[in-house]
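User: My collaborator sent over this chain with a note saying "see what the structure looks like." That's all I know about it. Can you take a look?
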Amino acid sequence: MSAVNALGRVDGTALVAGSDGTFSLQNVTAPGPGRDNIVVDVAYSGVSIGTEFGVLRGKIGWGEFPMITGYMASGTVRAVGSDVEGFFPGDRVYVRHNEGLALADSDQPLNCCSGLHCSIASLDPRGDHRAALLPAGVAADVGCLFTVLSVGLYGVDMAGVAVGSTVVVIGLGTIGLAVVAAAAARGALVVGVDTRQRCCEVAESFGAWQTVKPGATETEKLVREIVGESGADFVFEATGLPHLVDFGIALTRPFGAFVWQGHYGEGPVAFDFVRAHHKRLRMFFPCDDGFGR
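Assistant: Without extra context I'll predict from the sequence alone. Here is the result:
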């Protein structure tokens, strides 16, 4: 449980990432509630394998080390600023941001590029990417994963998947599985593609009609046997691996939609323009969760 110290800050513990790829648990402090912040005792923080590893490996630039990653967490409001409305001590919340963290011993500021792998969170809850009440009936450990799941939902909404659509999802990690669940809920026929048996099993439990594991047989042929020779109405590339983009374009039917559902880093990404051009494809670039609560 967090407590405001003599300097008006809140003490906690955070997972701090160094520039050499190491991690350490360190004592930190965060701003107290003041006028505009809420202070949250974090119960769980979710891990985004794609984005966070991209940041830690230099694929995505989120600033200087040492840093604290983690952009989704759930917990309980401990204290509320005097001007804050809509939040009260004891509220169960999910949050997307932490601000003002510093090392407890030296007051060295830490890069809170997101900052939620930490036992405390202090933030102004107003606006997007901030905080909201955790819906009744949602367990805290489930609620801490809301962001990556909503990323998949947003891609499905943005592309316009509808009843009867054929959908191929390449990569059945957390975001790919969210795409599977959201597309299946809309009445689409969904095919998942992944090398991992367990991920394929989960995808089928989430509503995928069939799954395909790339291997000795020709993957593209197997998928076409399911969705039709011309290809799928929608193809979601959810691995973030640039070399699989052309594979996804090949599986998209003429006048279909290709969705860049993964994060491909900050450098240029090349793809087979002529093939996409001749097919008259639509392309969608969903970013984040749509910037809504």
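A starting point for your reply to your collaborator: The CA atoms of residues 154 and 289 lie 6 Å apart.
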